[in-house]
Amino acid sequence: MIGVERLTTTSRAGLRAFRYRGYPAFWSANLAWNVARWMEQVAVGWLGVLLTHSALRVAMLGFYRSLPLFLLGIFGGVLGDRVDRRKLLVGIQVVDVLTMATLALLSSRGELRYLDLAVAEVIMGVAWSLDWPSRRAITVDLVSRADLANAVTLDSTNMNLSRAVGPLASGVLIATLNPATALLILSGLYLLNGLLMARTPESPRQTVKQQPVFASLSSGFRAVLRDEAIVGVLLITLLMNLLYFPYQQILPVFTVDVLRLNSFGLGLLLAADGLGSFTGTIFLATLVGHRRNGLLFGLGSLLACLCVVGFSFTRGFAIAAVLLWCGGLGRAGFSAFQAAIVLRNAGDGMRARAMGILTLAIGVAPFGQIEYGAVADALGTPSAIFANVTICFLLVGAVVARLRKLTAA
Questions:
Q1: How far, CA to CA in Å, does 338 sit from each of 3, 109, 257, 264?
Q2: pTM here?
Q3: CA neighbor of 194 nearest in space, from 30, 17, 21
Q4: Is 205 exposed, middle or buried (0-12, 13-18, 19+ CB in 10 A)?
Q5: N or C: which end of the chain has fewer CB within 10 A?
């Protein structure tokens, strides 16, 4: 009985952010948004393969999706510190719904072209760049600082659950029905996200001094770069998004050319990755203490890299799925503590700008995607994955060893 009571207490502690008014609706809205994003990656990537049969051109779709985050994400952070974040997010969902519904219509009529995918991904990228900083910062509007790490970890659990559900759902829909159906359903999920977001409490009026935009950015950079833990998060985030995460963009090509699987197989591989992350974040969410978050962040990143290096050598589905599941376990540490460390260390009135600066590090992904695609076309997708992720492992290890304040955060 004592063991059961202890487990129950730990489970309740792991869910304590749900006690706050508005957080359950916010968490549910994020779940719909995340599932839609992962469904979109599989659907758009698969359509890219069917239309071009080129690793570079498929990778370019990721470039179009990610480049606005690099160019505009930091301004999205400034905007999030000046307006009601909830209203901003609700408005952005209108753009998401219309864009994906248009692709669904074109696909159902057999009129979809590669250019249509590229334009849609640019639009979605601009929406994402304005959405993401405020979506992360709004967590602080809903919970106390004491429960911030728990709320962010629960949101990471949400994100990693969607990494299992979204790709699998998209792969099944494409294999059994058609890509247009997958696009239409994910459009509906963006709509659901907007409706749920409208039910969250309004963001408190921001107290930050309304400086000119570039002066506001400058003060944000100065404040963030004085904190070694945040600097460490930024460096590892930059490395992971430049050298690690772009492998997912060419995974449809790897699935077809190397593993000889269909869209259902692609969905299963990404689902295995997401299930590993979900398992890892469930465990992390139950941790009552919040020390050594930075160490878990760094070690998780290293484990994720090591598993994907092994994945690059696989030629069979079973071992590939196991390695991606193990890599997902490692990436749970990366995704759970990336935003938590930045949000906790950033000062009041600085959080959305701090998240905007974090999007700058995330936004280097399009450059990695182009490089991945070019190397994959020249040397093959396994070589592209192996070379990039090995370099990432070595550089992340150097950051973890060098920045002691990060591992102590």
A1: 32, 42, 34, 31
A2: 0.76
A3: 30
A4: exposed
A5: N
What are the distances in angstroms from CA 131 to CA 96, 110, 355? Answer: 11, 31, 11
Segment (H or E) for 224: helix 213-225
Residue 138 tokens, joined: 């709004």
Sequence-separated (6 or more) residues with CB below 8 Å from residue 379: none
Query: pLDDT value at position 282?
Result: 78
Biggest distance spanned by C-alpha atoms of the chain: 63
Q: What pLDDT shows up at residue 342? A: 81
pLDDT of residue 278: 86
Write down the pLDDT at residue 290.
Answer: 54
- Concatenating the DSSP letter of every residue in 23-57 gives HHHHHHHHHHHHHHHHHHHHHHHHHHHHHH--HHH
28 Cβ contact list (under 8 Å, min separation 6): 196
- From residue 176, how far is each of 51, 142, 180, 262, 372 by CA, in Å? 19, 41, 12, 11, 30
pLDDT value of residue 252:
92
* Sequence spans of domains, the chain: 16-199+212-407
Interior angle at CA 84, CA 82 and CA 89, nearest 5: 115
Contacts for 293 with CB less than 8 Å, ≥ 6 apart: 149, 337, 340, 341, 409
Note whether 232 and 360 are within 8 A (CB).
Answer: no
3-state secondary structure of 2: helix
pLDDT in tens, 355-404: 777 877 887 888 998 999 999 999 999 999 999 999 999 999 999 998 87
Say if residue 282 is exposed, middle or buried (CB neighbours under 10 Å; 0-12, 13-18, 19+): middle
Amino acid 291 reads R
What is the residue whose two structure tokens read 């979605």?
A: 124
Which tokens in the block code for residue 175? 């294999």
Q: Where are the beta strands (DSSP E) in 322-396?
A: none
| CATH 1.20.1250.20 is the classification of domain 16-199+212-407 | yes
Q: Which residues of the chain have pLDDT under 50?
A: 1-11, 207-208, 288
